[in-house]
Amino acid sequence: MEIALLVLVCLCLVPTAFLNGLHDVSNAIAVPVRTRALSATAAARLAAAAHVLGALTVLPLGLSVFAWFDMPDAEAGGILTVLLMALVTVFGWNLYTYLRGMPTSSTHGMLAALLGGIFALSALGLTDGDDTRALPWAAPALTLLISPLVAFGAAYVLVFLCARLARTADPDTVNERSRVIQAATAGVTSFGIGLQQGQRLMFLLMLAFAAAVPDHPHTWSTAVFLVCVVAVGAGALTGGWRIGHFLGHRLVVLDPMRGMVAGVTTSGLLLFGSLAWALPLSTSLTAGSAIAGAGSNQRFATVFWSPALKMVRFWIATPVVTGVTSCLLVLALSPLYS
Fold this sequence. Notes:
Elements: H1 2-24, H2 26-34, H3 40-56, H4 58-61, H5 76-99, H6 106-123, H7 129-133, H8 138-165, H9 171-212, H10 218-237, H11 241-250, H12 256-276, H13 283-296, H14 305-332, H15 334-337
């Protein structure tokens, strides 16, 4: 049974990886396309290549973002069921939010789904209660609350600095240079997204293979990982324009300089959060907040606050929906593995 569950987990990882690429790519390229720093085709190709490169970087770098998450001891069937239901839950939620054009966090959704599934195992008496309580329940909640505020504030303040530096420059020159920097930050942000997604994929594969076949040859998990990386790149290549339209048109109106600020803020926080601080930062939360922060620091109103508040409601709903749904699914399937 464990092998069958392992195969199902691997099969679910591939479409989930594709949807993650499609869902998150707009965080990097929506504004550069909107400000004409990149064409839509060039932006999608750049993002897809950077996604793949970032994900492949996980092989030598390891799992810094998820190193603090330790699955409690449980039967292999229970762990694999938690992983499978977490993937099904996150896939369903990401598909729904993409169709609604809402940028939500795949990272927070997956962490909440895993925690919900583990809570279900604990409620069934299949894991130690102390181990369950010792899990990092606060980490996703803190980053959910803090990272948007930091991104919004950093982008808002950075606009002052850029405006001061550009006050005597020719506007066309400022716009041209801003677009060049935007194109670069689109690649950096896409690399950071790929790095986050690669770590998430590798983390799930390590848990699945360790539970089902503890003495497995690493080549199998690596082969599945490489297939998933290709799926991430294919998803990113689509451009994710439903969410891109929301970020680039419905959320805010940005000039090239403020678009550059949003890109620099997003890419900087994402790379430092992933590599230096090992935090499970959400690209969607960081990018959406940075775009709103840069757009709000203007003499005229450019942020459309009704869509922005709707976006925040989806951010809050993500861990709640994925955590509760995963918990209920694991409880419903308990006769199969307990």
